[in-house]
Specification:
Rossmann fold; seven-stranded parallel sheet; 7 strands; globular; SDR_fam; oxidoreductase activity, acting on the CH-OH group of donors, NAD or NADP as acceptor; NAD(P)-bd_dom_sf; 3-oxoacyl-ACP reductase
Length: 234
Amino acid sequence: MNNPTRVAIITGASQGIGAALVAGYRKADYAVVANSRSIGASDDPMVLTVAGDIGEPGVGRSIVEAALERFGRVDTVVNNAGIFIAKPFTEYTDADYDAITGVNLRGFFEVSRAAVAAMPQGGHLVNISTSLVDQANSAAPSVLASLTKGGLNAATRSLAVEYATRGIRVNAVALGIIRTPMHGDHEYDSLAQLNPQKRIGELDDVVDAVLYLENAGFVTGEILHVDGGQSAGH
C-alpha cells in the first residue's frame, strides 16, 4: 500500500496525555494507531484503535502489524503508556514489579523493535519519561519509576546513536506533574510546589513538546524536560 500520509502509533491513548496526543497528531494530519488495554473504536477513519495490554508478550508487535495492514507504514511511535506506583522501596510487591516493568519496559521494547524494523524511510521514537529520574523526591518514593524510566532515557540515547544514519530519530520527554486523571483536584496545590514555576503542567504542554520534537529534524538523543523547572532544582 503506497500511502503518503504519515502514521503515528500512540500507546496509552484512551485518556489523559495519550488522548491529547492522538488529537495533536491528527491536527498535524497524521493517521494514528491508538492503543490501550480497553480502548474503544473511533469514529475517525484515520484513527485505528487497537486494544491490548502492551505489557503482554506479542501485543507490541501486533500493534505495528495492525498499523501496516491499515495504513501501510509507520513513521512515529510515542511510547506513552506507563504505570506509576509511588511506594517506599520495601513495600513494593512482586506483582508491582511485574506490572511496572511489563508496561514501561516490555511495552516500549516490543512496540519500538517492531516499528523500527518497519521504518526503511526513517522515522521517530518518542519515549515519555519522568523528571523523578533526575530529581528524586522523598515525598514521592518511586524507585520502580526511576528504574524503568531511567532505563528508557538511557535507551533513548543509545538508539539515537545506533540509528542516526538510517534517518531514525529517538527522543524522550521527561514530565513533571501534569493535570491528568492520575491525580485528584485536591492534590494540585501541593503538587504545584514541586517545581519553580509553582504550577501544574497541562496536556497542551506535553503535546507541544512532543510535536516540537516531531518537527525538529536535527534533534535526536534528547531528554526534553517538561516539568516547570523541577529537574533544574529548587
